Every structure is written in C-alpha cells, then in structure tokens.
Amino acid sequence: MKVEQIYTGCLAHGAYYIESAGEAVIIDPLRETKPYLEKLNKAGVKLKYILETHFHADFVSGHLDLAKATGATIVYGPMAQPDYDVYSAKDGEELKVGDVTIKVLHTPGHTMESSTFLLRDEAGKDHAIFTGDTLFLGDVGRPDLAIKQGELTKEDLAGYLFDSLRNKIMPLADDVTVYPGHGAGSACGKNLSKETVGRLGDQKQFNYALRANMTREEFVREVTAGLTPPPQYFMKNAMMNKGGYDSFDEVLAKGNHPLSPEEFEEIANAEEALVLDVRDREEFSEAHIPNSIFIGIDGQFAPWVGALIVDIKQPILLVVPEGRSEEVVTRLSRVGYDNVLGYLEGGIKSWKESGRETDAIANINADKLEELVNAGKAGRILDVRKPTEFLAEHLLAADNFPLDYINGEHFSALDRKGNYYLHCGSGYRSLIAASILRARGYGQLVNVRGGWNDIKETGLEKSDYQCPTSMSQATVDKAVEAVL
C-alpha cells in the first residue's frame, strides 16, 4: 500500500493518491490532470476511483477530466446529486482497491454531502482518514459554505458537524492518521494548523472542536464564532463542481497564447478585458500597463483572484514572468477563471519598446512611514488587512480598508485627490489594493514595503493586542459592517 499527499501551497490544498496491488484511488484532485496521469503511467497502475469528499468551494476539482481520461468512477457519499454520472456510495459502504479497503463515512456538517474516507490496510486495520473539510488539524470546516439545501442555517450545519465528529470520527483509534483537505491559509476554516498530516489522538487532545466534554451548544457557538463572509467565488466554484465545467485542455490552449503589444491592446479594448499583471511586486511598482491590476503569482494568487475578480467569466489578458504563462493559466483555471485570452509576449519590455506608456506606484519602508507620520506628512494611512487582523492590533493613525471588501461601497469614503499610504501584513495585499485604486482613478498612492511585520517594530502608536480567536462573532460582524 502506498499513500501520498499531493499538496498545493497556493490553495493550501491536499489531494491524495492511494495505490495497492495494481489499482489506485485519487481523492479531491485539482483541475489539471497531467500530474496525476503521469504518476499513474509511471507506476503502471489503473485508476479505479476518483473520490470526492464534497462539492469544493475554494477550487474547481479535476474529477471530470480525470474520469474521462482514465475511465475511473467518480464517487461521492450520500446526498451529493451532481449533474453528471457518479457512483453515490452509501454510508458505511466499503470500496475495494487492490488489497486495501476504503470505507465511506457520511459526515455532514461542513456541507450536507460531505464524506470522510477511512482507509483500512491489507490486514483490515484502520490506517487513515481523508477528511476533506470535515476535520482539519487544529480546526473543523466552517458550516456556512454549503450550497443551500432548504432552510438550513449555519447553526443547523454546525449541529450536524458535531454529530459527525462525535459519532463517526472520534470513536476511531488514536493512531489513525488524519489527512485533511486543507492546511493553514485556506478560508475553509478559521485557525488551521501549518501541519498537513497528523494523528487523530493529537486532534482529540488539542483541537478545540473535539473536546470530550464539549456540549452541542458550546460547539455550535464556538464553530460559528468569528466567521467573516466567505470569498465571493466560493459559491461559483461549488456550482461548477456540482454542475460541470469546460475541459482544462481547451482552457489552457486558449489562454496560453502569446500576443504582440498591438494584438494585446486591440483585444483589451475590443473585449473589455481585464489586464492582470502577475509579476514580482517590485517590477510591477516600477512599471506596468496603465489600469492593470497586480496579483503576484508568487503570493496567494488564485484565492485573491477569486476574491477580487467578481465576474468568473471576465475576459483576462496576462502580463507574466517569462516562461510562466502556462502556470498562470493553470492556476487561474483552478478557481474557475477560464476566460484568459492570451499573454503579452516579451512582457513589459516589449510594451515599452512599442512606444506605449506605463504607470508606476511608489514604495517606502516602515522607517520612512514613521518619519512621515511624526512630521505630519503621511496623509491618510489605509490598513488593508482583514478586520480580524486590524482588531488584533493596528496603528492608531490607520483606518481599516480591507482588501477582501474592496469591491464594496466604502470607496465613497475616499477622495480621488487624497494622499494615501497603504499597508497590509507584508506588502503584497497592499500593492494589490493600490493597483485597484489606481485603476479606478486614485492618483496619490504609496505602498509600504514589509507591511505590519515591519511597522510593528517602529515607535508608531499602536492599539492594545487582542487574540483573534477570542473575538466574538458580534465583534467580528460589527467590524465587517463598519467597512462594507
């Protein structure tokens, strides 16, 4: 028996490959099938099943293309009912794969169709659970992301999750390995561990949601506390996973297409395409196409695309680092952005050489910001971190202007002629925000390199620290309402 985690840092996502006696299973695959097909071909094994733990909201799964390429059967647990052919397994049903067995445990709560897959080794011993978004390391799946089924509330779903954990997962042995669907950085939970593999016994001991003496009421209250609104693309991805999507190969062929500056500009105008610049933040700051938006490929790229580009069918043109166009198109497709029309051949250099104009955004470090604040010359400081980050600790002189909600109505509080200094945690999100503001006509913008990581080391006045995990839902809701 072979078990392999295939982890993708940008999405904080774990897919899984199980192999036994010439047969294999893949759990929760990403959109592109090539890496999985290469693995299967190298091992010389047949893919028997593609197991889906639930309708994922934070990425588009590769189950349809993978099933078409291999003939494998797509398996969901009870209550899924997708718009394509699958095998709907019953709760407690066992699937044979080579010499091992996979038992389907219906574990509703994160969503109603959520299931956990229990792997039993050749001797019939419980070896591992693949929990999807039901159980993470340090947390459990948030109960407010499900495709709506009737009048179920997040509190109702949290109650289902309480029962699933107590009745299906916690009775398993402490030495069972936990393979979760996500790690730290995913928006599918509140406080996920940086570790991506753990022991169930450790979760029973340290995961707040698995406390042995926890009441249902306590569980519901704690699991639903501190939830901020999910990214806008989550429901759209969930519907794509339920209803189907275009072939990845077709999406890649259309998007991974070089364009001259002339072609690029013509398509941008004709298609009203968004110009997405994914280069290094310093390169973007120094020179970029006017009105282009920065979301760097080397940050949390796909989640921020999904959070900020409201129309999932938006025509997109790319400015990419040399040799990385296929990677960018692939990563966009993972969150359902399939309408890429090409990329600028030769990058910003060819744009300049064609005689076309560029724009720039100024950067300063935290020490310079301190100097300007003390001299009364810093203008208005915008902290673009999440409301919970801002509540935890912030500059007293700053206003919270979260990147997550930049498409809301709070633009009315800004003056296009104003002078703004933007910061986040490290400088990545604040440059994204600055690029969006610049594209909307705000001219005097300065990005603070190093963000809060460096600012907190200065002598600038700060609020008292409070732990984000101790914040009540009412406190978080009030903070979010204030910036919407």
Strand content: 15-25%
Widest sheet, order of strands: 1-2-3-4-5-6
Principal-axis shape: globular
Q: Could you give the distance between the termini?
A: 51 Å
Number of discrete helical segments:
17
Radius of gyration: 24 Å
The overall strand count is 22
SS content category = alpha/beta
Determine the fraction of residues in helical runs and give it as a percent range: 25-40%
Main pleated-sheet profile: 6 strands, mixed
Q: Flag low-confidence runs.
A: none
Give average pLDDT, whole number.
94
Structural account:
It is a single chain. The chain is an alpha/beta fold and 484 residues long. Helices cover 31% and strands 20% of the residues. It contains 17 helices and 22 strands. It has a six-stranded mixed beta sheet with strand order 1-2-3-4-5-6, covered by helices on one side. Helix 15 links the parallel strand 21 and strand 22. Helix 3 packs across helix 5 and helix 7 crosses helix 11. The protein is globular and about 70 Å long.
Summarize the model shown.
The protein has 484 residues and is an alpha/beta fold. It is 31% helix and 20% strand.
Question: Main traits of this protein?
Answer:
22 strands; 20% strand; 484 residues; six-stranded mixed beta sheet; alpha/beta
Q: How is the topology of this model organized?
A:
Elements: E1 2-8, E2 13-20, E3 23-27, H1 34-43, E4 46-51, H2 63-70, E5 73-76, E6 87-88, E7 94-97, E8 100-106, E9 115-120, E10 126-132, H3 154-169, E11 177-180, E12 198-199, H4 200-206, H5 216-224, H6 234-243, H7 248-255, E13 258-259, H8 261-271, E14 274-277, H9 281-286, E15 293-294, H10 301-308, E16 316-319, H11 325-333, E17 340-344, H12 347-353, E18 362-364, H13 366-374, E19 380-383, H14 387-392, E20 398-400, E21 419-423, H15 428-439, E22 444-448, H16 451-455, H17 473-483
Parallel strand pairs: 3-4, 4-5, 5-6, 10-11, 13-17, 14-15, 14-16, 16-17, 18-22, 19-20, 19-21, 21-22
Antiparallel strand pairs: 1-2, 2-3, 7-8, 8-9, 9-10, 11-12
